[in-house]
């Protein structure tokens, strides 16, 4: 009986995820501009933005923390007049997840800027590409953890001044206010 309940719970979770992806990919947005990036291009974007800070927020449509924290990332960027990009972690060639993510993002904010990690630099396997990217982008003073739903803040010189991890949520990943007020805002108000 216990195994049957676990199987039912697992199948329900998979169905819910599949439905969420199906809902977001039903009508792909064909007028989308997605900027392929690597660590050097991200630095260049920050330098050329004309803003004091640039925020890249790592995102996968399948990632619950990514979806939960995204509205806060958008608000943070607007409140602090930052250049803002959602950085897709899935492979450029993974049309199912890229299309799903794009449609999800444009439903949330039709003016959102989207970037994606370059396949030719980072490969196509999500965890490996994210690990390589996070290793490149994370300065030595920050802990290098290759998680998702990551805030990456760069200054006007293209220097990374903040890279967050799951540890920055103080034990409660749903408490986005803690990470914003205690980790990111102090960097933005220096």
Automatic annotation (TrEMBL):
* InterPro entries xref list: Thioredoxin-like_sf, Thioredoxin_domain
Q: Where is the signal peptide?
A: 1-20
Does the record's keyword annotation contain Signal? yes
Which UniProt key words apply to this protein? Signal
| Domain Thioredoxin residues, every copy | 15-189
Protein name as catalogued: Thioredoxin domain-containing protein
Record organism: Flavobacterium subsaxonicum WB 4.1-42 = DSM 21790
């Amino acid at each position: 009986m216990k195994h049957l309940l676990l199987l039912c719970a697992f199948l329900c979770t998979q169905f819910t995820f599949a439905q969420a992806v199906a809902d977001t990919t039903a009508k792909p947005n064909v007028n989308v501009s997605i900027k392929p990036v690597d660590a050097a291009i991200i630095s260049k974007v920050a330098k050329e933005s004309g803003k004091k800070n640039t925020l890249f927020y790592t995102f996968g449509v399948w990632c619950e923390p990514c979806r939960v924290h995204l509205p806060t990332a958008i608000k943070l960027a607007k409140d602090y007049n930052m250049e803002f990009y959602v950085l897709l972690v899935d492979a450029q060639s993974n049309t199912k997840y890229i299309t799903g993510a794009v449609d999800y993002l444009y439903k949330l904010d039709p003016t959102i800027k989207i970037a994606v990690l370059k396949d030719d630099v980072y490969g196509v396997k999500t965890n490996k590409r994210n690990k390589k990217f996070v290793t490149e982008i994370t300065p030595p003073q920050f802990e290098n953890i290759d998680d998702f739903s990551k805030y990456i803040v760069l200054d006007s010189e293209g220097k990374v001044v903040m890279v967050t991890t799951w540890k920055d949520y103080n034990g409660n990943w749903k408490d986005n206010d803690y990470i914003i007020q205690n980790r990111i805002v102090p960097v933005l108000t220096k």
